[in-house]
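User: My collaborator and I are trying to settle a disagreement about how two of our proteins should look. Neither of us wants to argue from intuition anymore, so we agreed to look at predicted structures for both before our next call. Could you fold the first one, then the second, and keep them clearly separated?

Assistant: That sounds like a sensible way to settle it. I'll keep them separate. The first protein:
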Amino acid sequence: MLCLLERLPYFGHLKSEISDLKSLAESISRQLRAWADSLQNSPITGQRYLNDNTKRREEQEKRADAFLKKLKQARVKPGAKA
């Protein structure tokens, strides 16, 4: 749209503002592309990638972490119930 506006004579008096907006839009576009690339190359996956196996594995890891935490607490306080 900005390229079109820049060519129309009706908006001739706004050329500098349109040029500034184009530069800003290009900068934002580059930043968004870099962010999207970093997300694609990230080991972090989103909710849509969670299937039954990964959900089960995550739940097992949470239970294991909770169990290890209880063990550590029991070691710190001898005689304490886990």
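The second protein, kept apart from the first:
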Amino acid sequence: MKYPDKYIYPAVFTKDEDGEWEVNFPDIENGFTAAESLESAILEARYALEDLLYFTEKGKFSIPEATPIDKINAPKGAIVQLVVADMPAVRKEHSQKAIKKTLSIPAWMEDELKKRPDINVSQVLQKALKQELNLNA
């Protein structure tokens, strides 16, 4: 399934009794975050939305449709604002995370590697795999 490059969802920003800003995405289950300042809450809202949508995509769950901003019921004093999730950057960031693999090599090769602390086995393996897979990246 092809997912869109951008999602735009309304978020409700409310200040709690301790002065912290709580953010809720009404359309997204468990879609919430918080921060000490409004500026931080706006940034946290974006990161939270992007992560929630990334893992929703990855799990192949359905992505809910965004409610139009003028249809959001917000408590008095709340701020309702659209938050944009830029997914290509998020997908790329998650795809570049290192994944641990178990590797078996002959004992004599391990002995030779011990003599060469300047060799990074992970980098050598990545380079060899890129070449073997005909990847230019």
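Some points you might bring to the call about the second protein. The chain has a mean pLDDT of 91. The helical segments are 38-58, 87-95, 107-114, 121-132.
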